[in-house]
Amino acid sequence: MPEVIFYPDNIKIEVVEGENLLRAAMIAEVHINASCGGDGTCGKCRVIVETGEVEVLGRGKLTEAEIERGYHLACLTNVQGDVEVRVPVESQMGDSKILERERQIPAWGHFLSAPDVEVMATAWKHLSPTRKMFMKLPPPTIEDNLSDLERLRRELSRQISLKEVVIDPAVLKNLAVNLREKDWQITLTFLDTDDGTYLIQVEPGNATKKNYALVVDVGTTTVIAQLVDLSEGKVTAKASNYNAQISYGEDVITRIIFAGREGGLLKLQSAAVTTINNLLSELVRKAQIELQDISYMVAAGNTTMTHLLLGLDPKYIREDPYIPTISSVPLLKARDLGISLLESVYLYCFPGVASYVGGDITAGILGSGVFQSDKLTLYIDIGTNGELVLGNRDWLVSCSCSAGPAFEGGGIRNGVRATRGAIEQVRISRETLEPMILTIGQSKPGGICGSGLIDVVAELFLSGIINQKGKFNTELKTPRIRMGENGAEYVLVWAEEAGIGRDITISEVDLDNLIRAKAAIYAGITILTESVDVKIPDIERIIIAGAFGNYIEIDKAMIIGLLPEADSERFIFIGNGSLMGTRAVALSRALQKEAEKIARKMTYLELSVNPAFMDRYISALFLPHTNMDAFPKVMGMIREHRA
Ligand code: FES
């Protein structure tokens, strides 16, 4: 792997070929001013490439004279081989005068990026619930004058046992045309279920290669959909958008209340369906396929989202003793819910465990393979709420903490989803208090996504800009700390460098929301481990799922006390676990059976009636925690930074 050396600090780092120079500096903890997120427009990330091979993506605001002297914009430069880079003093200094403090070079920093795999569960065969088969029928004659359906049945009985195949009535509608269009050559689509095999579609000609599944993670905030090519076993298109239900309430509780109003349930159900249908159109367009190429649908969501999608009243989910109408969902026709798929396409909905641990968590446990591992694993899904599962192949215990949507950007003034332009990585210079930011897609910053928020809180804390309670030190001399509408705030991006025409800030109110969210998750982890008498060091793996962005920095998440302190090697970041589970089920009918077993096996702890939860929550309302003994490594890092 190419080695990059940053001067004058002489910091070396190995990176993959093609790595962006600004990101390499970020990983190496080398500060370079960067305020346009890597868009190439602020012109602040000037570096001098002294030796080595780089790919220049652009020159931005560099002058001819600067280019001649070897200047590059780090964000527009990719590493191609061993490189020596000098960071000039102007790229390290800020608008404010340098604070009198020795520069510290921390020897830590652990990035985790979402794995580029479809499914992490192992030992399963690629055998999808739907399969296609090509068939030629003898054309009818005066002598052989069976009806179209009987002709099809006769051929089916010749080639496979007819008794085992149930013909879906949807097949009959266009049967006559479909049989004749390609001269009695047809493709049959079968759906295998526990009750038997169904013939669900007849297409003209040979369409055996065109077999796709629509998989959907129905999140409270965001709905993410993918098209899975069932022949190749891979994802061919992705699309996501806000759940249109948001206009009726941001969280599950307000939506349950809204569902109780006259016509409310119908509005919520059709909002979810409209969101899915829009994503479906986008996917079909992107993948350049026809709707009839999709033969199956899989969806996973929390218990409330599943109820609303199915049009079921979620009222009793929030009333003691918190009982959902349904946990295991029978196969349904997607069209019956209003989804714009063919009439013959069935929908499998992941089974939930309890009112606040839903099918999305079952899907995550399935897709990530926790259910088949000997290793004691803590699975943490941080979305609009925090859901936790502890266990292994023998047992699983779960709980849900009302963390709120802060790490998805909800309730944070400049919080956004992890999409293009979202700030996903942040550093703040300990000397100048100037930020270095990188955005998704290296485009102009539009807000801060989950991983960026974790970074911002940790960096503000390590820089001494905020204290353990998340309150600003307004004595510090930098124009970036000021009084805003919501009290003290730090300006991460000035309006002229932002893509939204105003300053991107993080305020004390935002920090308060983030600290409450992380405290709820940490308190949930504490209760869960205490319930089965497990200590954090006993946990062999910690899997993190959630819509943070492409990266999560484990050290930063530990510094703010969102995650328990453990060796970095024990953490795995899987991105969207729920979606991983939906892909698994689309590709393997055997895994669909496992999903049902997982949901039945998992024990659920109701935290809202647990008297110890509030105690643990209050203790966690500090950075990183009131119990510093639980964070010895983090305390060492903080001392190192503040020395
Ligand atoms: S020009 Fe590189 S970060 Fe702005």
Summary tags:
single chain, 643 residues, alpha/beta, six-stranded mixed β-sheet, 15 helices, 29 strands, 26% helix, globular, binds FE2/S2 (inorganic) cluster
Short structural summary:
This protein has 643 residues and is of the alpha/beta class.
Question: Can you walk through the features of this model?
Answer:
This protein is of the alpha/beta class and 643 residues long. The protein contains 15 helices and 29 strands. A six-stranded mixed beta sheet has the order 13-12-11-14-16-15, sandwiched between helices. α8 packs across α13 and α12 crosses α13 (589-601). Mean pLDDT is 90; it is low at 95-109. The structure holds FE2/S2 (inorganic) cluster. The site of FE2/S2 (inorganic) cluster (FES) has 13 residues, from loops. The site of FE2/S2 (inorganic) cluster has 13 residues, from loops.
| Main sheet record | 6 strands, mixed
Helical stretch count?
15
Q: What structural class do the secondary elements suggest?
A: alpha/beta
Lateral arrangement of strands in the main beta sheet: 13-12-11-14-16-15
- Beta-strand portion reads 25-35%
* Unreliably modeled segments: 95-109
Distance between the termini: 33 Å
Helix content: 25-40%
List all distinct small molecules, including ions and cofactors, that are bound in this structure: FE2/S2 (inorganic) cluster
Secondary structure blueprint with pairings:
Layout: E1 3-7, E2 11-14, H1 21-27, E3 46-56, H2 64-68, E4 71-73, E5 77-86, E6 111-113, E7 130-136, H3 148-159, E8 165-167, H4 175-181, E9 185-193, E10 196-204, E11 212-218, E12 222-229, E13 234-242, H5 252-259, H6 264-287, E14 294-301, H7 303-310, E15 332-333, E16 346-349, H8 359-367, E17 377-382, E18 386-391, E19 396-401, E20 422-428, E21 435-439, E22 447-448, H9 450-462, E23 481-484, E24 487-493, E25 504-507, H10 508-531, E26 541-546, E27 551-553, H11 554-559, E28 571-575, H12 577-587, H13 589-601, E29 603-605, H14 611-619, H15 632-642
Parallel strand pairs: 1-5, 8-10, 11-14, 14-16, 17-26, 19-29, 20-22, 26-28
Antiparallel strand pairs: 1-2, 3-4, 3-5, 6-27, 7-9, 9-10, 11-12, 12-13, 15-16, 17-18, 18-19, 20-21, 23-24, 24-25
Helix pairs in contact: 6-7, 8-12, 8-13, 10-14, 12-13
This protein binds FE2/S2 (inorganic) cluster.
Residues 34, 36, 38-45, 60, 73, 75 line the site of FE2/S2 (inorganic) cluster (FES).
